[in-house]
Write a structure and sequence with these properties.
Blueprint: H1 19-50, E1 62-70, E2 72-83, E3 85-86, E4 89-93, E5 98-103, E6 112-113, E7 118-122, H2 125-161, H3 174-199, E8 202-204, E9 209-214, E10 221-222, E11 227-233, E12 236-243, H4 245-250, E13 259-263, E14 269-282, E15 289-296, E16 308-325, E17 335-338, E18 344-347, E19 351-355, E20 358-362, E21 369-373, E22 386-390
Parallel strand pairs: 1-22
Antiparallel strand pairs: 1-21, 2-16, 3-12, 4-11, 5-7, 5-10, 6-9, 7-8, 9-11, 12-15, 13-14, 13-16, 14-15, 16-20, 17-18, 19-20
Helix pairs in contact: 2-3
Transmembrane segments: 26-45
InterPro entries: RND_pump_MFP (IPR006143)
Coiled coil: 124-197
C-alpha cells in the first residue's frame, strides 16, 4: 500500500550557511551596548556625589603681610640715567712732518699720563736749522733798525744846527726807520713760528688722561695732520641727563651748584656730581629737559668713562606724602591696602619719586594712617576678607 500524502516542501532543503551565527552576533552587540550604558550611568552618578562634602568650619582666610605707613612730609629724588663721559677727549695729530724718532712707553695704549708728559718725539734737525735762520734774520733786522735810528738822529741834528726845518720825512729818514721797525716785527714773528714748529716735534699730553689708542711707531714718516694718539681725560667727567616735564616741575630750583648722587648698577654710591646747567632748551628728538652735571675728580675712584649710571637729583618737599615699599605697586600701577575691617581695597596712586626700594606717592585725602600689602597677588579682589599680619621691622 502506497502513502499518497503530500510531503513538506522544507524537508530535505539545507539552511543557508551563517544564519545561526548572525543571530548570535546581534545578541552580543545588544548585550555590550546595555553594559556600556550601565557603566556610563554609574560613572555619572559617582561624579555627582563623590566631591560633595559637608563641613561646619569655613575656609581659612588668605594671609596678607602689610606695612603701616603714616602721611607726612617727604623730600623727593628725581631719578634719571646717563653715561659718564670725559670732559676732554682729544685725537692728537702731527703739526709738523718728519720721521718718528722716539715713542715713549707712556704713549702705549692703556697708560695713564699727567699733563705735560712727553709721549712722542719727531726728528727735529730741520726745525732747529729753521729756528737758527730765523734768529739770524732777526739779528740782521735789529741791526738795520739801529742803522735807521742812527740815520734819523743824524738828520735831525743837522737840521737843528742849521736852524732849518726839514722839508719832508725823507729828509729825516723816517720811512727807512718805519721799514726797519716792521722788518724787526716780521723777523720776530718768524722766530716765534720756527720755535713753535720745533716745539711741535715733541708731542706732550695736553691734560691728565688715559691713552686709548696709538697710531704710529718709531721710524715711521708722518705728515701734517696724520693721527698720532687718542686720549681721554681721567680726572674730570661730565654727565648729560634727561627728564620729563613732570619731573622738571618736581626738581628743586634753583639747582645750579646742587649735588646729585651717582649710583652704579648694583646700587652702590660711585660719586657726587654737581649740577652745572640745565633746562635752557628741550631735546629735539625726545622733547625732554636736559641737565648737565660735572664730576671733579682729583684722585683715582670708582668713576669710569663710558659707565652707564643712575642719577638722583634733588627734588622739592611734599607736605602730604607716603613712603611705601616699591613691591607694593603692581604691574598695572595699583596699590592694595587694608581697611579697618581687614578687607582688601585698591587705589591708583600718583607716584612722585623712586628711592632705592621705596616709592613716594601723593597721599590721598582723608586718611593719615595706611596699611599697604607688601606683595599683592593677582588673586586679590576688592572687599575680600583676609588675615592681616604686620611686617616685622
Amino acid at each position: 500500500m502506497t502513502n499518497n500524502a503530500p510531503q513538506s516542501t522544507s524537508e530535505g532543503i539545507p539552511k543557508p550557511p551563517g544564519v545561526g551565527k548572525s543571530h548570535a552576533r546581534w545578541l552580543w552587540i545588544v548585550i555590550s551596548l546595555i553594559t556600556l550604558f550601565g557603566v556610563i550611568f554609574l560613572l555619572v552618578m559617582e561624579e555627582d556625589t563623590a566631591d560633595i562634602t559637608r563641613t561646619g568650619t569655613p575656609a581659612p582666610l588668605q594671609l596678607v603681610s602689610f606695612e603701616k605707613v603714616q602721611t607726612g612730609p617727604e623730600t623727593l629724588e628725581i631719578t634719571s640715567f646717563a653715561e659718564i663721559r670725559p670732559r676732554w677727549s682729544a685725537e692728537l695729530r702731527a703739526a709738523v712732518s718728519g720721521r718718528i724718532d722716539k715713542v715713549h712707553d707712556n704713549a702705549l695704549a692703556g697708560e695713564a699720563v699727567d699733563k705735560g708728559t712727553t709721549l712722542i718725539e719727531i726728528e727735529n734737525s730741520r726745525y732747529v736749522a729753521e729756528l737758527a735762520a730765523a734768529e739770524l734774520a732777526l739779528k740782521e733786522a735789529e741791526l738795520e733798525l739801529l742803522k735807521a735810528k742812527n740815520a734819523n738822529y743824524i738828520a735831525q741834528k743837522e737840521f737843528e744846527r742849521s736852524s732849518r726845518k726839514a722839508p719832508n720825512d725823507f729828509a729825516l729818514k723816517i720811512p727807512q726807520l718805519e721799514i726797519a721797525k716792521q722788518s724787526v716785527t716780521s723777523a720776530n714773528a718768524r722766530v716765534r713760528a720756527a720755535r713753535q714748529q720745533l716745539e711741535d716735534t715733541t708731542i706732550l699730553a695736553p691734560f691728565p688722561a688715559f691713552i686709548t689708542r696709538r697710531f704710529v711707531s718709531p721710524g715711521q714718516m708722518v705728515n701734517v695732520g696724520d693721527q698720532l694718539l687718542k686720549l681721554v681725560d681721567n680726572t674730570r667727567f661730565e654727565l648729560e641727563a634727561e627728564i620729563g616735564r613732570r619731573e622738571w616741575n618736581l626738581l628743586q630750583k634753583p639747582f645750579e651748584g646742587l649735588e646729585a648722587r651717582i649710583t652704579g648698577q648694583a646700587g652702590e654710591l660711585i660719586a657726587q656730581a654737581k649740577i652745572r646747567r640745565g633746562g635752557g632748551f628741550l631735546d629735539e628728538a625726545t622733547r625732554q629737559y636736559k641737565i648737565f652735571l660735572v664730576i671733579e675728580e682729583t684722585a683715582p675712584s670708582k668713576v669710569l668713562s663710558g659707565d652707564f649710571v643712575k642719577l638722583s637729583l634733588p627734588g622739592i618737599t611734599i607736605s602730604e606724602a607716603l613712603d611705601i615699599p616699591a613691591s607694593s605697586l603692581t604691574k598695572d600701577g595699583y596699590l592694595w591696602y587694608l581697611d579697618s575691617q581687614d578687607r582688601l581695597q585698591r587705589l591708583e596712586p600718583l607716584v612722585l619719586s623712586r628711592r632705592d626700594d621705596r616709592i613716594i606717592i601723593q597721599a590721598p585725602a582723608g586718611e593719615h594712617s595706611w596699611r599697604f600689602a607688601i606683595t599683592p597677588l593677582v588673586s586679590f579682589l576688592p572687599g575680600q576678607k583676609v588675615y592681616a599680619r604686620e611686617k616685622e621691622k
